[in-house]
Design goal:
single chain, about 425 residues, alpha/beta, five-stranded parallel sheet, four-stranded mixed sheet, 12 helices, about 20% strand, globular, binds flavin-adenine dinucleotide
């Protein structure tokens, strides 16, 4: 099997300062005062808020750990990925998608859109800069942020301390891979990769591949593996809602939003489940058991997103994809499942999702939970914290949530920006002098 592409990913990882052995670093340090807001992350959320601020005449600085914008989309997603939601629900503020883009743009089209978005608003993120910590300094009323910037030569890194009045967290809900630790995992002889390293089914032709996790990525990767003549199986540990991507000729998400304007959530859920039953059939019969509460209510209560079927169910139904319950343990060549079945596999793909990395670098007790970095305030309140702290893209509402947050944050900073007086500048001068 050709796993060369995995080496390429490891090569990219070498450029991640957090992964670098300390002895490789020759570091220098400096401090910079930034007049406008500092934004952490150059994904869609960071770009959106920078653009909204720019529209209001407020300069900002984006710090991004990767060497490109939208690194999640460019470096960590599979080739066949398209937006799961229609483009009009995913566009960023002040710039629609090009008219000739399809309803569900490909990831390449989405990245091209984001690049031209950054260009249109003259946004130039500071790449290769990882924010290591951010803390509000009550003695001067500014945020102090410690960062590490990797130089052109891999062995060079520069520590810079940034000081600013406003800090916008846009580091994403999907900043770090979640990798479960199963008994016997080290003994397994084949490759075990996370979906963030999966590009296509090409290296897995004719192989027995177990995909662990059945969110949108896991389901779609199973389909991709089928298209490359691999033999995929899917682990479905929990109950889940699978819905058709479209119903009545419109996106399921769009239909739900429209119905919610008129009907209570429970009724909309009943409608979604009825149409799903009529179009994609009874998923329980395929081993995909539905939760007791409806898809929208579940999303609201737990943040768990329903899976939108893009053709995987048909492959499960015709036997091309096998479904297994939870994993109990790994052996050198097989997986034992919780129902006692033992099955041989050549490779494992962990579609076990992502988590945010806020608790590792942000010192804050108000806006984000210390435990998991989730927003403490319910939607739509989660965009504003204390002491000039803001967040964009943490409402568990995808790119639509991002656009709403970005507008609100820019509007709120604008009010303070206009009130900004010589006092702020004096304090800034004092901070600079204290260095
Ligand atoms: C496979 C997949 C498909 C998806 N499809 C859709 C879809 O169709 N529609 C939708 O609405 N949503 C979708 N999503 C959700 C997706 O998370 C959002 O679309 C979008 O990427 C969120 O943008 P963001 O800027 O908030 O986060 P990200 O895109 O994750 O960007 C955050 C950026 O912050 C950087 N960063 C993180 N920590 C630090 C640090 N300490 N210092 C400096 N930089 C840092 C990261 O490198 C990254 O570039 C999908 C997600 C995945 C994984």
């Amino acid at each position: 099997m050709d796993y060369n592409y995995l080496k390429e990913i490891d090569g990219k990882r070498l450029h991640d300062p957090l992964m670098m052995p300390k002895t490789m670093n020759t570091s220098t340090s400096s401090r910079i005062w930034v007049q406008g807001p500092i934004i952490v992350g150059a994904g869609p959320s960071g770009l959106a808020v920078a653009a909204c601020l720019k529209q209001r005449g407020i300069p900002s600085l984006i710090l991004e750990r990767a060497n490109c914008l939208a690194s999640l989309w460019q470096l960590k997603t599979y080739d066949r990925l398209r937006l799961h939601l229609p483009k009009h629900l995913c566009q960023l503020p002040h710039m629609p998608f090009p008219l000739d883009f399809p309803t569900y743009p490909t990831k390449q089209q989405f990245v091209a859109y984001l690049e031209s978005y950054a260009q249109s608003f003259n946004i130039e993120p500071d790449y290769n800069t990882t924010v290591l910590s951010a803390e509000f300094d009550h003695s001067c009323n500014f945020w102090r942020m410690k960062t590490s910037k990797v130089g052109l030569k891999i062995e060079e890194s520069v520590s810079i301390e940034y000081v600013c009045q406003w800090l916008v967290v846009a580091s994403g809900e999907n900043a770090e891979e979640v990798k479960p630790d199963f008994e016997g995992m080290d003994e397994f002889r084949g490759p075990i990769i996370h979906t963030s390293h999966y590009k296509s089914g090409d290296p897995f032709r004719d192989k027995r591949v177990l995909v662990v996790g059945c969110g949108n990525s896991g389901m779609e990767i199973c389909l991709d593996l089928c298209n490359y003549n691999a033999r995929p199986s899917l682990v479905v540990r929990d109950t889940l809602h699978v819905l058709p991507q479209e119903m009545l000729g419109r996106s399921t998400f769009g239909v739900s939003m429209w119905l919610l304007k008129w009907l209570p959530m429970r009724l909309v859920d009943s409608f979604l489940l009825l149409v799903s039953r009529l179009t994609i059939g009874d998923t329980d019969r395929l081993g995909l058991y539905r939760p007791k509460i409806g898809p929208l209510e579940l999303k609201k209560k737990t943040g768990k997103t329903p899976v939108l079927d893009v053709g995987t169910l048909a492959k499960i139904r015709n036997g091309s994809i096998k479904v297994f319950p939870g994993v109990k343990r790994f052996t050198s060549h097989a997986i034992e499942f919780v129902d006692g079945k033992l099955e041989d596999f050549d490779a494992i793909i962990l579609a076990t999702g992502y988590k945010n990395n806020i608790p590792t670098w942000l010192k804050d007790n108000v806006l984000f939970s210390k435990k998991d970095g989730h927003s403490k305030k319910p939607f739509p309140e989660g965009w504003k914290g204390e002491n000039g702290l803001y967040s964009v893209g943490f409402a568990k509402r995808g790119l639509l949530g991002t656009s709403m947050d970005a507008e609100r944050v820019a509007e709120d900073i604008e009010l303070q920006w206009n009130l900004k007086d010589s006092k702020t500048m004096e304090s800034a001068d004092q901070v600079s002098e204290s260095y």
